[in-house]
Structure formats: structure tokens, C-alpha cells
Amino acid sequence: MPNMRFEALKKSLRREHTQIEEMGKRSELFGQQVFNEEKMLQFLTREAFDNVKSASFQGSKIDRKIADQVAEGMKAWALSMGATHYTHWFQPLTGATAEKHDAFFDIISDGRAMEKFGGSQLVQQEPDASSFPSGGIRNTFEARGYTAWDPTSPAFIYKTTLCIPTIFVAYTGEALDNKAPLLRALHAMDEAATGVAQYFDKNVRKVHATLGWEQEYFLVDKELARSRPDLVMTGRTLVGNPAAKGQQLDDHYFGVIPPRVLSFMSDLEKQSVKLGIPVKTRHNEVAPNQFELAPVFEEANLSVDHNLLLMDVMEEIADRHSFMVLFHEKPFAGINGSGKHNNWSLATDTGVNLLSPGSTPMKNLQFLTFFVNTIKAVDTYEELLRSSIASASNDHRLGANEAPPSILSIFIGKQLSDVLDELEGVSKGKLSPEEKTELKLNVVGKIPEILLDNTDRNRTSPFAFTGNKFEMRGVGAKMNCAKPMTVLNTIVAKQLKQFKKEVDALIDKKKLKKDEAVFNILREYIKSSKRIRFEGDGYGMQWQEEARRRKLSNNKNTPEALQVLTSKESVALFKEMDVMNEVELRAHQEVELAAYVMHIQIEGRILGEMIYTHILPAAIRYQNLLLENINNLKEVYGAAHKKVAESQLNILEQIGEHVVAVKKLTDEMIEARKSANSLATINKKAQAYCNNVKPYFDSIRSHSDKLEKLIADDLWPFAKYRELLFAK
Ligand code: ADP
Ligand code: MG
Could you tell me which residue ranges the GS beta-grasp domain spans (predicted)? Predict the structure, then answer.
């Protein structure tokens, strides 16, 4: 059989990049394939339009008659756009998106065909999606799953299918997806934050969380990627000797984008813009063949949908340009992996960013209120927030000196640290007129509208304030942002609710003025949440020790990190905020643990297969070549052959050692897997995979990589790092 690698190399060398077609004005293409307000006004009755708007603004229900009207309008629009199918588009707990297409086409009673799509098809579906993970929620036969329309995220046409964003819930109402808990968390946030925002502006009716993600990814030549079973099956390379050149020259970062990649990006952006994804920036990232794409921020639920849609579109467009796109958090050893920073803030319906300092002391007090409450929330629930970014693939990144550590901390910069230090000195109870003036002029008043030293950001911080938003940096590139966004919004909502209670109590019982009460509570929060603030180097060992002294959690792997999800405090929190009940939390935890086990299990299987059926045979073939040569030399030189064959004998010996070692370790790994599989609970299994199976991967890899260095290049079966990473 011809060597896959060389076939692939031949193909990849012959590639020419497709010409870039200029996309014209983005603003004209924007949202072409989205059933947005403009289309709704055109295709819906005024009554239907108003109902959809108020459902999306206030979460009000849409009755069946109106749903029928909306469905009729949506169908007319979709057919006019050439759509043939519709689907409820949802986010099962696998982390990806799912869809099941139905044709609009239907047969009516007299045998004629018609294009059918009514309110009932729009509002609710029962996909036979019983194979999605449910963590036991759907064990019983009656526990069917339903998808239900989310009118806050507009329908869109992808290829020829009308996609309707939906939640996925069990018959009993429990969430089977990542969207339902997110929507509940965002609702809790709206309620809590609106209450607090009204201290400062009575006109605020609604607060929504905003999210701007930054998607990092790798592009690898499709043919080369396909020659590697590990990339195809696990999304990362399980073996591979680092290329002579990695990212040490920093010559890729923000460099000129290679032409083939640029035509991929243009194509991608054109598609994205039509789908209403407001893509904005693109650039090379730190590692070779690594890139980043960021949109303009949006309301968090819509932004999550757009990120998931974008990842689907990227896979398709990459394929069209003969690339494979890798979202795995650590596809290659020795160079940076990929993350997805989540920039987060809160915005009012009056157009104010609540985390943006303003031009008046009152606006700044509002800013400080939301700022300090966020800090306090992260301090109280740091371990829970950490758990929301736990996954088998993200374990490779967190704490590996390229992404933030698994310890949560907050960076706010010197200017704001100084402000908080001053606020700590505010008097208890009523404030004298002098103190008030002093606070207004010299403390709160001094917060500049633009925070200068935040340009000097601490890149090692997992949760950094960057001028007018917080940036959560530990989120993995592959992850559904709904998970961290659900936790972050829940904990901040809970904190704001608590804050309002305390402030109101001071106003009612202690007769303090509103601003006095706010200052009093903020002072206490600043004092009690100090341990979470850290301005230093988050990558250093010193911080690990310091964090331990501060009693911050440091859960280094997924099975450990997930435990807190079902702690008494977490259960109480999610219940109080109406985000998840205990059954859902247990189910979600179980699904995450099972996903962890399966990922490591698949990696173990592929690694075993690669060693036994590719790497050992290549090593043995080369051994035979060497032996043949040594034997031939012996025939010619007799006993003197040892001298002329010295190098061959030495290489033969080295190969022999690695062959023995790599096989032994692989066999041990397979045994460890077997005993992990025999454990009774998913928790024990996950821990066994983490502690007893996974550690073998690195040692197996190290022998395999040494073999790669020794064996003749033409015998090596897998595309090498330099080929995967430097093919342009
Ligand atoms: P970087 O972190 O790479 O320096 P920027 O500061 O330019 O990037 O912003 C990164 C992201 O922050 C963008 O995706 C942008 O949409 C998002 N962003 C900006 N303002 C907000 C906000 N108020 N809420 C949420 N995200 C925001
Ligand atoms: Mg960033």
C-alpha cells in the first residue's frame, strides 16, 4: 500500500489558492439569510411582529394563532430564498449543534402535494434524538425530549435549510441542552441587574449580558491531516516530534496572512456576514498556522448561537479550501494551543454599558457597583466558574504557561486597584458632607472615562478587566460558550440580588441615603473579596503557593474540577436563581464526566492502534534494512565489519530499546484502560482515566517521537509537524 503521507504531501504541494472574490459592501450582505426585523416587517402581520418582539424583549408567550402567522411568514420568506427544508437547531450536551431536517413538502388528504409549515412545527418538535447524552434524565421510557422555539435568536437559512434556534428539554421540563440553562441565567441576570441599575436610572427596563468571543483555530492541509488517524479521530496529534522551528521566532504572530488562508477567510467572512454573524477582525496567532477571528459583541444568547454556527460554517468552508480546521485546545505539543476569550459585560436597554466608567461621579458609582459586585461574585464562586471551562481537551491548556492557570483570579490594573483601596477607607454608616465631596471629586470622580493602564494588560490573568468589560480567558476554543456564560451570569445575578437586599436594608432600617448605602456595602465587598484580586504573574510557581495560602481552589483536571457542580452551595445557588434544579445539575455533571472518559478512552485506543499498526511496523522495517546492510557488510569485511557498521549497529540498538519500551508502555496503558472500564461509577472511571490511563500517553509519545527521529524519513507513516504546520 502506498504511504498515505507521501500521497498527501504530493497533493498538498500541488495546491493553488483559489482567487478571492471581493465581497463588496458588508453592510449590504449583512443578515441576508436571517429572518431579522427587516424581513419580519415584510413577511409578518403587524400583530405577529409585535408579538415576536415582545417575546424576545420580555419573554412573553406567543399563542398558537400568532405562532401560525409567524410560521406562515417564515415559510414564505424561506421559500422565496430557495429553502427546501426546515430544522429545529439545538445544542445537545455533546457541546456541538444538532439538527434534523424535514422537508416543507407534505401530502394533503386529496393526494396533492403542498409546502407545509405551521405554528405547531415552528413552536415545538419531538426529534427522535434519544441518543444524545441526558445524564439519566431520559432513562425512563416516558421521558421524551422536545425542542422548543427560542424567539430571541432569529431563524436563518443555512444552505437550503431554514434553521430555527431551539432549546432541547425533557418531557418533564429538565434541560437536555446548553441553551435552556443559559436563557434562564440570562433571565435571572436581567431581573437582578435591572433592579440595581434602577438605583442610578429609573428608566432602565432591561439589562442584557453581552458577549464577544475571540475564536482561535488552526488550519492544516486537509490531505495531510487526513493521513493522521489521531487528528481525524481526536482532533489532536498524539505523537509527533516537534519541528526544528516552532513559534520561537514569533514570525507568524500578526504576520502577513498566507494567500491560501486569506482566500479561506474571505469566503468564510462572506458566508458569516450573510448569516448575520458580525465578524470583524482576523489575524495570525502565535503558533504557526494558527489564526483568530473575532466578531463585534452581541447579546450573549445570540452571540453563543453565532459562535456555534460559525464553527459549523468554518468546517465547511475549510473543506472547500482543502483545509481541515482544528478547534482542539491543544492540537500540537510544544506550541500554543487555542482558546476562546469570552469578553463579557452588561448593557441596559437605554444603551449604557454598565461596566464602562462614565463622565460623572454618579455614572462612576454605577460602574463601581457592577464592577465590585462582579469581583465579589467571582470570589465567592471561583471554583464553580473554574468548573465551567473544564474539559478533557482544555486540561492541556490551562496552567500550561500559554493560557491562564486553573486558579481563578482577577486582574483590574493599578488605577482601579488604587480606587478600590481608597473606597476601603469610607466611613461606616452616614457620610459627612466633606467625605461625600471628597469621594465624588477625588475618588469616584477620578476614574477616567478611558482607563489608560488597561492597555497594559496582564495576559496571564484568567479574568481581566479590560477597560469596559471583563475578559474570561480560560475558555477553550472548542467549547460551547454557553457553559461559562451560564455560570458567570448566574453568580453575578445572585450577587447583585444580594447587594440590592443589603442596600435596601441600609436605606430602610438605617435611613442612609442611597449613595451612602451603596458606598457602605461596596466597602465591605472590597474588603471581603481581596483574595481574588491578583495583579502578578499567573504563570509562576509562586502564585500557586500564594493562591493556596489564599484558599483559592486549584483543580488541575476535569474530574476534580467538576465535583463542585453538585456541592450543597452550588445546588442551592442554581435552585435559588432558577437556572438548574438538582436533577439537571447531577445530569450535567454526569454527562461531562462521561464525555471526559470517552475522550480519553478514544485517545487511548487510537494511540494503541497507531503504535501497534503503524509505528512498530515502520521501526521493524527500518531495523530490517539496517540488518540487511550490516549482514552485507559482514560478508565483505568479515570480523572487521563492526567498525564500518558501527553507526548502523548503534542506531539498531537505539531503535530496539525504544521498540521494547513503547510496546511495554502501550500494553500497560491498555491494561489500565481495562481496569478503569471495570469501575462502577462514572466518577471513579473518570478519575482512573485521568490518573492511571492518561499519564501513559506522554511516555508512549516520548518513545514514539524518538523513533520518528531515528527512522528513515521515507518509512515514517505520519505527516510530520513541519509538514502540518508549515505547509501554506
Ligand atoms: P483583544 O483582547 O484581542 O485585545 P479587543 O479589546 O479588541 O481584543 O476586543 C476583543 C473582543 O471584545 C471583541 O470580540 C469585542 O467584540 C469584545 N467586546 C468589546 N466590548 C464588549 C462589551 N461591552 N461586551 C462584550 N464584549 C465586548
Ligand atoms: Mg482578548
Answer: 84-173
